[in-house]
Design goal:
Elements: E1 3-4, H1 6-14, E2 19-21, H2 25-30, E3 37-38, H3 44-47, E4 57-60, H4 65-76, E5 81-84, H5 87-93
Parallel strand pairs: 1-5, 2-3, 2-4, 4-5
Length: 102
């Protein structure tokens, strides 16, 4: 399983790569990395067809546990998926920009 750091995520976002946030809706509304797409882990299997086709799909959660599970699931389906180490919490702690609200 591959994990990427925050710098890799920052580059991926700038390049327009898909980033899937698998936290639950209430977490997403509180704080999120700008430009991510919400597909909560609790809905993921039912919504997996919404994952865009791309060279690499980035998966983020709060700290990295859920995103590792989802990235592993996607990899098993033939998708090149990577988890963001440290997740949204690390992104926010690093002082990078965040969004909030619905």
């Amino acid at each position: 399983m591959r994990e990427v750091d925050l710098a890799a995520l920052e580059t991926a976002l700038a390049d327009g790569a898909p980033v899937i946030d698998v936290r639950e809706r209430d977490e997403f509304v509180q704080v999120r990395v700008p430009g991510v797409t919400l597909i909560p882990m609790s809905e993921f299997v039912a919504r997996v067809e919404e994952i865009p086709s791309a060279d690499t799909v980035y998966v983020i959660c709060a700290v990295g546990g859920r995103s590792l599970q989802v990235a592993d699931y996607l990899s098993g389906r033939g998708v090149n998926a990577v988890s963001v180490a440290g997740g949204t919490d690390a992104w926010q702690r690093s002082g990078r920009p965040v969004e909030s609200g619905a």
